[in-house]
Specification:
The protein is of the alpha+beta class. The chain has two domains: about 80 residues, no CATH class; about 70 residues, SH3 type barrels (Roll), CATH 2.30.30. Helices cover about 25% and strands about 25% of the residues. It has five helices and ten strands, in the order αααβββααβββββββ. A five-stranded mixed barrel has the order 5-6-8-9-10. It has a three-stranded antiparallel sheet with strand order 1-2-3. The chain has a two-stranded antiparallel ribbon with strand order 4-7. Strand 1 and strand 2 form a beta hairpin. The longest helix has 17 residues. It is found in: Periplasm. This is Flagella basal body P-ring formation protein FlgA. Belongs to the FlgA family. Keywords: Bacterial flagellum biogenesis, Cell projection, Cilium, Flagellum, Periplasm, Signal.
Length: about 190
């Protein structure tokens, strides 16, 4: 009887040793609160303020812990790119638009290049050409994910075009939002 319990104790002790320690697993992921602070410091404004991040980084993300300092790029096109150069992960954080940019976009919804009266100008200038590398973006106000892709057809602002991001998969349909950038619809 004693031998039976000591074998059971040995088995349970061995099994408990094999279970992952959740505190060790949490250390393998990037601290998202610290990432929020670093983004706010780099931009010089807090989360939710004009010119700052719209919301904190999505807590559902499990980014690998970056061994060096995370790089926060300059804001471009209403978002800022945050990445770990050594590991290769990159996220885009949408920014709160400034009042002057919102006012300008409401007053002049047409692309500034489309001011002529010709048929070409009424359709819009081609911003993405077939074979061009493009940034394929999906996301909403809480998060943005982007990958590189190749445009499969020409497109002007607002056009739906096919983009191939993986050679082994079929192309996806995306909307042209600016030169070299397309967005997957449905993540509003």
């Amino acid at each position: 009887m004693k031998n039976k319990y000591s074998c059971l104790g040995f088995f349970l002790g061995s099994f408990a040793f094999l279970l992952p320690n959740t505190s060790v697993l949490a250390a393998d992921f990037q601290d998202l609160s610290a990432l929020d602070k670093q983004i706010a410091t780099s931009l010089g404004v807090p989360i939710g303020a004009e010119g700052g991040a719209v919301t904190p980084v999505d807590r559902r993300l499990h980014l690998a812990q970056c061994p060096e300092s995370v790089v926060v790029d300059k804001p471009i096109a209403g978002s800022v790119s945050v990445h770990c150069p050594s590991l290769g992960w990159r996220i885009r954080v949408p920014l709160v638009r400034t009042a002057s940019r919102v006012l300008h976009s409401r007053e002049n919804p047409q692309n500034s290049q489309n001011s002529g009266n010709s048929k070409e100008d009424s359709k819009g200038a081609i911003l993405v050409k077939r074979g061009d590398p493009v940034e394929l973006v999906a996301g909403n106000n809480s998060f943005t994910v982007s990958v590189q892709g190749i445009a499969q057809q020409d497109g002007a602002l607002g056009d739906h075009i096919r983009v191939k991001s993986d050679p082994s998969k079929p192309p996806v349909i995306a909307v042209v939002v600016e030169s070299g950038k397309v967005r997957i619809p449905g993540f509003e």
